[in-house]
Amino acid sequence: EPSVACEVCEGAEEMPEPLQQCTAWLRAYFCEPATTGTLPVPAFHHPLLQRDSFTRQVLWTLLKDVKFGEAVSYKQLADLAGNSRAARAVGGAMRSNPIPILIPCHRVIRSSGESGNYGGGQLMKEWLLAHEKLQKEKLA
């Protein structure tokens, strides 16, 4: 459960606009998940997300197509990204994700339904999935 006072950062008004957008999005994700869809996605300037590659295609597809509270298998995400035979490459893209949570690689699971690996650790991935499931159920 989120605490009564959910603060991401003090002094937000002194931050550059992209950082303000990022903190607003993260605050919404953890404290008011229903509002994340109404917020602009923060600008991503990481070099991996600038060059044309399958990894970039996978990460953008994940961001755009797999919504809060949903999960997708590596194979399903490969299909969505345009290469049904690239499930292993999707795993590599998830490992390369420079901004987990914002680009929700925790939503990618094994075809068996098991959660699979996560750079932040197994417990963190399971917590994020449970957080989204609980919040989605509250909204239903």
Automatic annotation (TrEMBL):
<keyword id="KW-0808">Transferase</keyword>
<keyword id="KW-0862">Zinc</keyword>
<protein>
    <recommendedName>
        <fullName>Methylated-DNA--protein-cysteine methyltransferase</fullName>
        <ecNumber>2.1.1.63</ecNumber>
    </recommendedName>
</protein>
<keyword id="KW-0539">Nucleus</keyword>
<dbReference type="GO" id="GO:0006281">
    <property type="term" value="P:DNA repair"/>
</dbReference>
<feature type="domain" description="Methylated-DNA-[protein]-cysteine S-methyltransferase DNA binding">
    <location>
        <begin position="56"/>
        <end position="133"/>
    </location>
</feature>
<dbReference type="InterPro" id="IPR001497">
    <property type="entry name" value="MethylDNA_cys_MeTrfase_AS"/>
</dbReference>
<dbReference type="GO" id="GO:0032259">
    <property type="term" value="P:methylation"/>
</dbReference>
<dbReference type="InterPro" id="IPR036631">
    <property type="entry name" value="MGMT_N_sf"/>
</dbReference>
<dbReference type="InterPro" id="IPR036388">
    <property type="entry name" value="WH-like_DNA-bd_sf"/>
</dbReference>
<dbReference type="Pfam" id="PF01035">
    <property type="entry name" value="DNA_binding_1"/>
</dbReference>
<keyword id="KW-0227">DNA damage</keyword>
<dbReference type="InterPro" id="IPR036217">
    <property type="entry name" value="MethylDNA_cys_MeTrfase_DNAb"/>
</dbReference>
<dbReference type="GO" id="GO:0003908">
    <property type="term" value="F:methylated-DNA-[protein]-cysteine S-methyltransferase activity"/>
</dbReference>
<keyword id="KW-0234">DNA repair</keyword>
<keyword id="KW-0238">DNA-binding</keyword>
<dbReference type="GO" id="GO:0003677">
    <property type="term" value="F:DNA binding"/>
</dbReference>
<dbReference type="GO" id="GO:0046872">
    <property type="term" value="F:metal ion binding"/>
</dbReference>
<dbReference type="GO" id="GO:0005654">
    <property type="term" value="C:nucleoplasm"/>
</dbReference>
<keyword id="KW-0479">Metal-binding</keyword>
<keyword id="KW-0597">Phosphoprotein</keyword>
<dbReference type="InterPro" id="IPR014048">
    <property type="entry name" value="MethylDNA_cys_MeTrfase_DNA-bd"/>
</dbReference>
<comment type="similarity">
    <text>Belongs to the MGMT family.</text>
</comment>
<keyword id="KW-0489">Methyltransferase</keyword>
<comment type="function">
    <text>Involved in the cellular defense against the biological effects of O6-methylguanine (O6-MeG) and O4-methylthymine (O4-MeT) in DNA. Repairs the methylated nucleobase in DNA by stoichiometrically transferring the methyl group to a cysteine residue in the enzyme. This is a suicide reaction: the enzyme is irreversibly inactivated.</text>
</comment>
